[in-house]
Amino acid sequence: MSDPEQRYALALDVGGTGIKAGLVAADGTLRRTWRRATRIERGPQAVIDTIADFAAELVEEAAADGTPVVAAGFALPGIINEQTGVGVFSATVGWRDVPFGELLGKRLAVPVAIGHDVRAGGVAEARIGAGRGSARSIFLPLGTSIGGAIMIDGVPNLGPHGMGGEFGHIVVRPGGLPCGCGLHGCLAQYSSAGAVAARYAQAAGTPNAGALDVAARLATGDPIARRIWDEAVDALADALLTTAALLDPDRVVVGGGLAEAGEALMVPLAEALAGKATYHVLPELVTAELGDLAGCLGAGLLAWDLVPQDLAP
Length: 313
Hints:
Blueprint: E1 8-14, E2 18-24, E3 30-37, H1 44-64, E4 69-76, E5 79-81, E6 86-89, E7 96-98, H2 100-108, E8 112-116, H3 117-128, E9 136-141, E10 149-152, E11 155-156, H4 188-191, H5 193-204, H6 211-218, H7 223-247, E12 251-255, H8 256-259, H9 263-276, E13 284-287, H10 294-304
Parallel strand pairs: 1-4, 4-8, 9-12, 12-13
Antiparallel strand pairs: 1-2, 2-3, 5-6, 6-7, 9-10, 10-11
């Protein structure tokens, strides 16, 4: 049924394999969702065209349904300049210097917000998820790699160069494992879900089964799983101690695939962090609440930031 009194922001979260889309109300309520394959094998221009075509189709569909779109938000992978709306570079998709804000604004004829996928997830968690009520929180997704967002009163703090929140490249083990960024010993090489799975597979001589499988093997007494897991927790605790010293957050929202291990991660992490602290005031550690819809919801909320108050419900 149509809802003529309600307006929505269209939100798209673009990933390497799929695009998640939804209609997001001003309070963060998600009304409808759609998904479409990214199909990056077709090349970057085809993916850009798919994003624009998919968004235009959904704007038309929403209007026909009596729920007009008043703004649109896009959570994109790679290096994003939120201020200019430019997709600077995406290693996943292969685009460079794409003026998404201008391109999509003209195509959709509504205000358009362009955000980084991780930071958009941080917006959602900070405003309507596990970070709500926090004045200064950290969103820390432990997925294939490790990203991050520094959130102040629900707004990402990007820094003057737009590079704030690269927690995965805190060097926690100087001279340690090589990282794709060119450094050695980065957090992402020890504590991401991808690293835990890959390191276990290499040490045990088994296929890469996933980080949650490594977590499950802890209960069986698997010594390799225990070593890899403990190293991941210890490295993460070191990074969070540095974070507490530099940024003094009141809460850290841990997300991504590794967070799905629940207490197997969060309990020893809290213990390790407390054991390392001296003068530090430690943040509250909580697991993310919004799952794989965080990026989509955050894109919608960023879009609502552009809507004049007289158009908001």
